[in-house]
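For the sake of transparency, this paper describes our internal protein records without simplification. Because each token names a local backbone shape, the row as a whole describes the fold. One such record is reproduced below, unchanged from the form in which we store it.
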Amino acid sequence: MDALPPPRRVTLIERLFAALRLDRSLYEEASVNADSLGQAVMVVLLGGALNGAGLMHRIGDAGIWAGIFAASLGWLAWTVVITLVARVLRLRREGRSLLRPLAFGTAPNVFLVLVMFPEVAQWVRAAVVVWLMATTVVAVQAAYGVGRGRALALALVGFVVYAGVDVVLSIVLGS
């Protein structure tokens, strides 16, 4: 009997493009496959580095590191907020991860490098925010096994909570 060939390894670039296309199978696979964590983290770091590169004209050489730090912290905070909102709404993940799908969901951040061009910066940021909401909906669908409407509701409530915390922290920290 012939042995089956090993499964084909999916590259980071393939997963990045699948995430950008909102390919639900990627998000579902990431929610159950712990081996995808390395590539998921790489997507977060790449998006952060490119966001930081786009900010270098404003904040100098620290831009890339600031972008990576902000992307990493933002991903973890967003995961916590979505998890807490889901608990309030009594949603269960049934052993699925939310962390990995939401990491792949940060893929649109790669386009933030374009904010280095002031003429398009506002449009790019707006498009990326909308795209990030869409990737969050797909990630939530994959992790919680819910329909699009319920996933959208969870993402929108999460966004309001996240934005509210951001406003409070800005006031408290005076920034």
Summary: The chain has seven helices and no strands.
